[in-house]
Every structure is written in C-alpha cells, then in structure tokens.
Specification:
Elements (H helix, E strand, L loop, with lengths): L17 E7 L1 E6 L6 E12 L2 E4 L7 H21 L9 E3 L4 E4 L14 E6 L7 H4 L5 E9 L5 H11 L7 E3 L4 E4 L14 E3 L2 E14 L9 E14 L4 H9 L10 H11 L3 E4 L6 E12 L4 E3 L5 E3 H9 L9 E7 L2 E6 L4 E2 L3 E2 L7 H11 L3 H14 L7 H5 L2 E3 L5 E6 L4 E3 L4 E3 L20 E7 L7 H17 L9 E6 L3 H10 L4 E6 L6 H12 L2 E6 H9 L3 H14 L6 E2 L7 E9 L12 E11 L2 E9 L9 H16 L5 E7 L6 H14 L6 E8 L6 E2 L13 H4 L5 E3 L9 E6 L12 E7 L5 H11 L14 H23 L10 H12 L15
Parallel strand pairs: 26-27, 26-28, 28-29, 31-34, 34-35
Antiparallel strand pairs: 1-23, 1-36, 2-13, 2-22, 3-4, 3-6, 3-8, 5-6, 7-8, 9-10, 10-12, 11-12, 12-13, 13-21, 14-15, 14-20, 15-18, 16-17, 18-19, 23-37, 24-25, 24-30, 31-32, 32-33, 35-39, 37-38, 38-39
Pfam family, one: Piwi
Protein name: Piwi domain-containing protein
Family: Belongs to the argonaute family.
C-alpha cells in the first residue's frame, strides 16, 4: 500500500455519549484586511580582537544568555531604526529580538536581485546605553537580508502574529514556545500570592503561554479559522540575590561562612549547578556560569600564577583588587569561563535575574512545593489567563495588531463536547462499571503463580529509624492479603534487616538459591538503590519490588489499607498475573502498540547521550501490556528503531497466538507540529516495512504539549480550601473532535482521567495514518477503554495503557543506562558509530535477552 504524504482526511464528528457544555481558553481572531508581509534575516556582530568576533544574534539555550542577547539585539535594532530612519519605517516593523524581522512594507522597493536586497549598517557602540556594548572596541555590524518578496506562507504568517504579541520588550521577557513573563507582575495586576516564595532562593513568577492555531471554529467541518490559545503559567525563577544568601536558604542555615560539610555540599551543588551569576569587583559586570562548589575556602585554596608563584585566593584578591574578604573560610564557587574552570569567593558573586529553575536544580521536596504552586484550579487559571492577556496588550488597542488588520475576541470560545460512557471492568467474581472513571477492585481474574522461594528485606544504614514492630506487622499484613487473593501460599524464605552495603551480597545469595521474588523496603534517604535493584533484576531475572520505608510506616501506623492493596496489585502484575480485564470492542484481532521516549537531557555520562525509546504491546495477551526499550541516537524527530519495534511485537504476537493480527494500532508519544510531516513520510514507512501484506495500520500521535485547556462553564468557587480539583474540573470521558480541532487533521481531544490537582491537561490525539478509515466514534471509544486497563489503580489514566506503559519502559531504560554507566564510562571506539555502540549497550541492558522478563510487565 502506498504511503500517504498528507494527513488522513477528517471523518465526521463522533456521536457517542451525551452532550456536555465546555468553556475553552481559545480566543477567536478576526482578519479584517489583507496585508502583504515581507520577511528578513538580521545578523549582528562586533570584532573583539583580530581573531575573535562576538555574534549577538547567535542562538542560545541558557536562559541568561538568551535574554542577555535579546536585550542587546533589541537595543541595537532600536537605535538602527532611528539612525537609519530613511531605510526603516518603524511603524511597519515586527522584530523577534534575534534574527527574524517582518515588515508590512518592502524595505528594498525596486530591488530585485539578491545582492540588491541586502544592506549593511555600521553602528557606533558609544551611542548605545548597555554597559557591555559601550565597551566594545569596534563598531557593530548589522546586516538585513530579504528572504522573499512575496506574501508569507501560512506557517510564517502564524509566526508573524505570535511575534506581534511580543513587542513590549520593556515590560515582559519571552522564552520558547510562546512563553511570556512580566518584569513587574504586581504592577500588571497579579497578586502577591501569585508570586509565592518557594524556598532555596526561588520564587514563582506568573505568565502566559500563547500560540496561534488554525481551528474549525463554531462553523465546524470544512471551515478554517485562526485563533489565539492562551494558557496561564506559574514557573519558579531564581531570585537575584547574593550567592552566599542563596546557599543559606538552601541549607536553612543562617551562617554558611565557615565552610560546608560534605553532606551540605552534596545538597547544595545540584541545586546551584548551571545557574548564571555575576561579579562587579573588577570594575565592570562579569558574568559566570556556576559549575559547582569547591571544598576549600579562599584562605586555603591555592593556584599557580604565570610567573610560577603560588597564591591563595584570599591573597590574590588582596593584591590584585585590594579586596579584603570578609569570609575567607567560605567555600569557593567553581565557575566556567570560556571553557576554563575558575574559583571565586561566594561573597563577591550575585545570582543573575530572570533565570527559570530547571528540574535538576530542584530537590524532590522543593519540586513538590513548586508543583503545588503551579497546579492552579480552573477558576484561578482562568483569572490569571485574563490578567496575562491584558498585561500582554492582547486587545483591540494593540497598534501592531491593528496595522495587520487583526482583532482578538474579548471572551474565550464556549462549545459543546460529549461525555463517553465508562467501561465495564471484569473481575473473577463480578463485573462493575467504572463510574466517572473510578472503580473498586475485587477478586483477581488471574492471580500470579506463587513463587516457592521469596524474600523480604528492610534496607537502611546506621541512621535509619525503622522499628522491628513495623517490619513484622507489615510482613504479616502483606502475607495475609496475598493469601486472601490466592497469590502467596508460603511465608518468605528469608525476612531480615540489612545494611546498604550488604544489598548486593543478599540479592546475589537469593538469586543463587532460585529465589524468584524479593520485596525491598528501602530507607527514603537511599533513592539511588532503586536503579541498582532494577539492573540486578534485569541481569538475574529475579523480580525485585521496591517500597519506600515511609510508605510501610504509614501503612502500619496509620492503617493505609488502600496503599497496601496498591502494592499487592503491583506484585500480582509483576509476577505475571492479571488483576482485571475490560470489555473492549473490536480488539480481538488487533495488535496495540505504545511508543514513548525519555528526553536525552536526562543523561550526561560520557560522549553518549541517547534517546531512550520505550514500547509496549498486547502481543502476549489481548489486555496484558508488556514491553522493552531501545537506545537510539538523539536529536531526530523520526524514531529510526520503529521497524525493529513493530517487528518484535509482531513476532511475539504470532508466537503467543499462532497467527498475525489483522490490524495494528500505534499510539506514539507526541512531538512538535513541525515534525508530523517527517513522521508521516519517514517513520510510518519504516513501521510498514516490518508488516506483512494485508495488515492494516492506524498510527496515532498523542500529545500533552499544547496550550489548550477546557473548563466547566459554571462551577462553584475554588477559593475555598475544601474544594477538590475533581469537583471543579471537567470529568473523565470528555471528548471533542470538532470546533477546536485542526480543520485539515483527523483529531480529537480526550480527557480520560480524573484531575486530582490543578486543572485538567487534556491529551490531543492526531491520526497520522489510517488504512481502516476508522470512524472517530470507534477510535475515541477504543482509546477511552484502553485508559481503563492500567491494572494498578482503580482509576482511568490520562493516556491509554499501552502508551502509559511504554513511557515507563523509556524511563526504566534511561535509569538502567545511567546505572550501567556508573560501572563503566561508555566511549565510542574509532572503528564504530554511535548507533553501533548504542545497539550493543541496548542488548546488554534491555529485556529482550532477559529470559521471562520480556513477557512480564516488570515496570508495574
């Protein structure tokens, strides 16, 4: 069958379910006139010395560099438009602060060849105000070059409209994907509670994320309308404060000037690494990137000068800068400057402003606080969206929009969705309906086979506090519960307390004695052991289940019976059992595959930085989703390993069922809209290459990385602390496949889960290939049913189980890769490619060669 190069045609909207009114965060755009727009490339640079230039329009990833270059580019450009006003018409320009310029007038009128449509400008840095620019030894060279003299294409026009909403440079700061934050949030109408301090020298800043989208609109199928989608944000930023003060806040310690202990260094270093700071002691502002914290202070740390003499850092600053340090015993900062690592006294360094906090710079405790602050209930999110819209001047008074002939609706779009019927959950002794996405567990439909040898260990160190009473009581409760579910028929062969350093010995001993299952109760302060357990599990093929010690204490002392049951549900699935099934339609002859991945930024071990592709399928049994992972070269939109993944799933399907499927349904983790064409033209043909003739393919991309939000049109006030997120959010089963979907795509939004915190984030499903010409009703019902098959919790999940499980396999693959790298740094031999090395490592740590583990859902 020929591979389509475009999206499948949208089919008629679904009809299943009952109507449900919906309010959105989508603001309609009205285009009142046709405006011809021209696009140009801007380049700015200056010569620092004979062999070195500084390029201001160069792209950067670091927040400080992005904003610093943006600020300098904007000042240079603003000055150029004044000095060369005969060339620039300021009222016609829209500039992105870097290398993209739009104009509603042709800047090169009458010029037709490429050489004539390019102009050079020389700018005297002494005419500028930025201190860094004033110190430049040579003029700034700015180039404007035309890209085309024709009206922009649709994608470029959308980019133009988005840029037109980012032109208030003095009041706001902008980041990737349309994120906009305000320099003075309180002045813009936000409250103090919207800018909460979250500790560690960090605070929340409110803002908005906005994107121009083409939607069907209220006229529905066959219509195309531009719209602006705006979502409120609250994001943690680093405070602009003295580094020594930030260290004090991280450690909750008043005085940090006498040196830090190793434990304190271990706590501070990840939180502060990668943050930009600045110093002024040299008479000018110098910027640095923090790499770590030195174990020594200025009084002890020495370095060698070019003349061969050794100086302490304290003496160097006294002689070079006439600065007597107040805190010579305070640890030095390690900063990276032009590739070299240098040491600086903390007291002389200040954290640079406008830097977002990365995931790596948060402790688990603080991540909990920031997540709680950013999880806004619907009423709060809608309020902050409207404040952000006003603060960004997105209204009829915006002169740039007026020149483009664009007006934005005052109020967001309201429409009608549908609420699908929940699935029937089938247990051994009864069938029940999952009312509103919830259900209670009953007797397992298929208990796992009881291991004849199993063990339970409590793992800690000399500082661990865990009583023998809690340990014994948990063992008894766990055994009683498993026996009531017809799982464990014997007591554990061994149950004991072990020290952290004894873990490897006891696991190896258990494996040698044909132990098939080990339950580890691990001190919360030893999270690194989890990955160690999992690599041992893979290599020994002995199931190792890990539980936090605090969870066990809570079960015993606070009688958390539901938590105990959830542990048991995991155990049954890990050991090969099935907790329940779901009454699924039209799935008897279908192979369902989920494909997810872990982002490469999670890894930093040697030269290898792979993308981990996880997958799962029902190849073993109709509703049992097991899987594996593959390490791939990062930086590609297309999953090159998809052919291998589909081939392995088909092989397993045929082995277990003695036949091939008639249909394959793939749920693939989403990516940017720009990569969908590559997936259609390159990735899907690779998937088809693994299929035999006659098998039909449906390929669906699933994404939460969008700006759409959906609300109940009227709801009780969420200001009361008693209001639950579940009560004020849209319920499980809400589906929309018209009005807010793209007019050229077969798409639907499905809110399958119950929202327990903040506002519902509804996944978007885009069909990229459909050999079956499936009705949207059918795809929506199947997808919703698959969101009931998680097995571990008595609730629907936000993603269909095959994709949910695939994402977990991707995370597991990443963790195993990092644990493997701790044992040996992975290099790329000269005679091998990166892909060949990754294939070798995949074989070493994946489950394909791990016996029966490939038939178990070991990441349950």
């Amino acid at each position: 069958m020929a591979t389509p190069k475009t999206f499948p045609e949208p089919s008629d909207p679904g009809k299943s379910g009952v109507e449900f009114p919906i309010k959105t965060n989508v603001f309609g755009l009205k285009i009142s006139k046709h405006v011809e727009v021209y696009q140009y490339v801007v380049h700015m640079k200056a010569q620092l010395c004979v062999e070195k230039d500084v390029v201001f329009t160069k792209k950067a990833k670091d927040d400080f560099l992005v904003l610093d270059r943006h600020q300098k580019c904007c000042e240079i450009f603003a000055h150029a438009t004044q000095e060369f006003s005969d060339f620039f018409n300021r009222d016609s320009l829209i500039y992105d602060g870097q290398s993209i310029l739009f104009s509603t007038q042709d800047l090169f009128i009458g010029a037709w060849n490429s050489d004539e449509r390019k102009k050079f400008f020389e700018i005297d840095p002494n005419q500028l105000s930025h201190p860094d620019l004033l110190k430049l030894p040579s003029p700034i060279l700015m180039t404007i070059e035309a890209i085309t003299d024709e009206t922009c294409a649709e994608q470029t026009y959308k980019q133009l409209l988005e840029l037109s909403l980012n032109q208030n440079w003095s009041k706001s700061i902008s980041f990737e994907k349309g994120k906009l934050f305000f320099v003075d949030p309180i002045q813009e109408g936000y409250s103090g509670s919207d800018c909460a301090d979250v500790g560690d020298g960090k605070y929340m800043i409110p803002g908005i994320r906005k994107k121009i989208q083409m939607i069907e609109g209220l006229a529905r199928r066959g219509n195309e309308n531009p719209a602006l989608v705006i979502d409120a944000l609250k994001v943690p930023f680093h405070k602009e404060q003295a580094v020594i003060k930030k260290i004090s806040e991280i450690l909750h310690k008043y005085d940090v000037t006498n040196g830090l202990t190793q434990a304190e260094l271990d706590k501070c270093t990840p939180v502060i690494k990668g943050v930009s700071c600045y110093s002024t002691y040299s008479g000018r502002v110098r910027h640095h990137r923090i790499e770590g914290i030195c174990q020594l202070g200025a009084v002890a740390a020495k370095f060698q000068m070019k003349n061969g003499k050794k100086y302490t850092v304290m003496r160097y600053f006294e002689q070079k800068y006439k600065i007597k340090l107040k805190y010579p015993d305070a640890n030095l900062l390690i900063c990276k400057d032009h590739g070299d690592k240098n040491f600086y006294p903390m007291e002389l360094m200040t954290i640079s402003k406008n830097q977002r906090v990365t995931i790596a710079q948060q402790t688990s405790q603080q991540m909990h606080r920031t997540t709680k602050e950013s999880a806004m209930l619907p009423e709060v999110r809608q309020r902050l969206t409207m404040i952000g819209k006003r603060a960004a001047n997105i209204n009829s008074q915006n002169p740039i929009l007026a020149r483009l002939g664009v007006s934005v609706n005052l109020e967001p779009l309201t429409t009608t969705a549908r609420k699908l019927e929940s699935s029937k959950i089938i247990f051994h002794d009864q069938s029940i309906m999952a009312s509103s996405g919830r259900f209670r567990f009953s007797e397992f439909i298929r208990p796992a086979e009881s291991p004849s040898v199993w063990a339970i260990y409590a793992v800690g160190n000399t500082e661990t506090r865990f009583s023998d009473y809690v340990f014994q009581h948990f063992q008894s409760s766990f055994l009683n519960l498993t026996q009531s579910k017809y799982m464990m028929t014997c007591r554990p062969t061994e149950a004991r307390w072990i020290q952290e350093e004894e873990v490897e010995f006891y696991l190896e001993t258990a494996a040698k004695h044909d132990c098939r299952f080990v339950l580890m109760i691990t001190d919360d302060h030893l999270p690194h052991l989890h990955d160690k357990y999992k690599l041992f599990e893979r290599n020994s093929q002995m199931i190792v289940q890990n539980i936090k010690m605090s969870t066990v204490v809570s079960i015993v002392l606070h009688r958390k019976q539901l938590t105990m049951e959830n542990i048991l549900y995991k155990t049954n699935v890990k050991l090969g059992g099935t907790n329940y099934t779901v009454a699924l339609e039209k799935m008897k002859n279908a192979l369902v595959i989920g494909v997810g991945f872990s982002k490469p930024r999670q890894f930093s071990h040697g030269p290898l930085n792979p993308l981990v592709v996880g997958f799962s399928s029902n190849a073993k049994a109709e509703q049992e989703f097991t899987g594996d992972f593959v390490l791939s070269v990062a930086g590609q939109d297309v999953i090159s390993s998809i052919e291998e993944i589909v081939s392995r799933c088909l092989e397993q399907f045929k082995m277990n069922r003695n036949r091939l499927p008639k249909k394959i349904l793939v749920y693939r983790s989403g990516s940017s809209n720009g990569s969908q064409g590559s997936i259609i033209s390159q990735e899907i043909p690779l998937a088809r290459a693994a299929m035999e003739d006659g098998i039909k393919l449906i390929y669906v991309m699933v994404s939460k990385d969008h700006t759409f939000r959906f609300f109940k049109p009227s709801q009780c006030s969420s200001l009361s602390s008693r209001v639950r997120a579940e009560d004020v959010n849209i319920p499980s089963g809400i589906v929309m496949d018209t009005v807010v979907t793209h007019p050229e795509c077969k798409q639907f939004f499905l809110n399958s889960h119950i929202t327990l915190q903040g506002t519902a984030k509804t996944p978007l499903y885009t069909v990229l290939a459909d050999d079956c010409d499936a009705k949207l009703d059918t795809l929506e019902r199947i997808t919703y049913h698959l969101c009931h098959t998680h097995q571990i919790v008595g609730m629907t999940t936000s993603l269909p189980t095959p994709l949910f499980v695939a994402n977990e396999y991707a995370k597991r693959g990443g963790n195993l890769f990092m644990e493997r790298c701790k044992q040996e740094v992975m290099n790329i031999p000269e005679e091998q490619t990166e892909n060949q090395v990754l294939e070798k490592i995949t074989d070493e740590i994946c489950y394909k060669n791990a016996g029966g583990l490939c038939e178990r859902r070991i990441n349950a």
